[in-house]
Specification:
With about 325 residues, this protein is α/β, with parallel strands linked by helices. It has helices at about 10-25, 55-60, 75-85, 125-140, 170-180, 200-210, 230-240, 250-255, 260-270, 280-285, 295-305, 315-330, and strands at about 5, 25-30, 45, 65-70, 95, 110, 145-150, 155, 185, 190-195, 195, 220, 225-230, 245-250, 275. It is globular.
């Protein structure tokens, strides 16, 4: 039985990977601060803050792993820490990067793993690129057994996928749809976007765990389905039994209301993308994303609307949405 350690392990992406890795027979341990929901049956937990390097080093002192996966590394400093902690202690180290690291603007709308990495709009993406560079150098110079995985927009049965939302999640947008209020759609809504259910992502991810063909390589893991943002919102409205009152607003204008949206919009969601998953399918021949968006999001909406604790109001996002609507009515999009 292969031994694996997940750093994180209970987020939107990592929770599905934890569940499938356990189901596939990995001896899985999750390292986190212990404040998260319950783990899948058979999964062990190490309680520590990964940022406390000395404490983590003490916990894993006598442990070795076949696979270590870090779901929560966002800066090169954190990656350097992982190299110190896990050099010589794992046969494979999987770093979760981001498909937002791919070149913006794109020179070709079909993305492969050889598409250049460059995102001048989003520091998050530039940090992911810097981590990839650092870890690949460790692989070349010292044999650190790196595999890079790049998720795109991934959602779950408890989290919906939208073009624009506030800091408290998606419910305020759903509330606007249900109330018939204008819902902001970035751009003209015709850009193509790829949304992946976390259970589909997990199939590719677990297929790369312990896979000798993955060492020293990078893979994105996405659905093969692409939809326009207009189509995405129409699907959501159809499930809710409402026609979505879509208000199309340019990304430039939206970023004037909130400069913090620039990375996620101009640097990501407003670029038409489709992903070529051929490389992943060569390494994991049985990989196939099977959850169609209309099927997956129906489950998500049912969960959110039946669980009051997921219905978190966001007055700040509501207020800025209303201001944007008013501005568009006066000045245009």
């Amino acid at each position: 039985m292969k031994k694996a350690l997940f750093i994180g392990g209970t987020g939107t992406i990592s929770s599905a990977c934890s569940a499938l890795a356990a189901e596939k027979g990995f001896d899985l341990t999750v390292l986190n601060r212990g404040n998260d929901p319950g783990l899948p049956p058979g999964v062990k937990q190490l309680t520590a803050d990964i940022n406390d390097e000395a404490a983590v080093a003490g916990l894993i002192k006598d442990m070795v792993f076949d696979v270590v996966a870090d779901f929560i590394a966002y800066t090169p400093v954190q990656a350097e820490r992982s190299v110190r902690l896990f050099s010589g202690k794992t046969r494979q180290f999987i770093f979760i990067s981001s498909a937002s690291a791919y070149q913006k603007p794109l020179s070709d709308a079909v993305i492969t793993e050889s598409t250049p990495l460059a995102n001048p709009y989003w520091q998050y993406s530039r940090d992911k690129i810097a981590i990839e560079d650092l870890l690949l150098k460790e692989y070349r110079d010292n044999g650190f057994p790196i595999t890079i995985v790049r998720p795109s927009h991934t959602y779950s049965s408890r989290s919906i996928a939208l073009g624009l939302e506030g800091t408290k999640g998606s419910f305020q947008v759903l509330r606007r749809i249900l109330d018939g209020k204008p819902v902001i759609v970035p751009g003209d809504g015709t850009t193509w976007w790829t949304i992946t259910h976390n259970t589909d992502f997990a199939k590719g991810f677990v297929g790369l765990m312990g896979n000798v063909h993955a060492i020293g390589e990078a893979f994105h893991i996405t659905s093969d389905e692409s939809l326009t943002w207009n189509g995405i919102y129409d699907i959501i409205g159809g499930i809710l039994g409402r026609e979505v009152n879509k208000l199309h607003v340019s990304a430039d204008m939206l970023c004037k209301f909130n400069p913090g949206w620039e990375g996620g919009l101009i640097g990501d969601k407003c670029a038409s993308v489709r992903f070529d998953n051929s490389k992943l399918k060569r390494a994991v021949p049985d990989y196939c994303a099977t959850v169609r968006f209309d099927q997956g999001v129906e489950q998500t909406l049912a969960y959110i609307l039946s669980h009051p604790e997921r219905q978190i109001p966001d007055p700040e996002f509501e207020a800025v949405s209303d201001r944007i609507v008013e501005a568009v009515e006066h000045f245009g999009p």
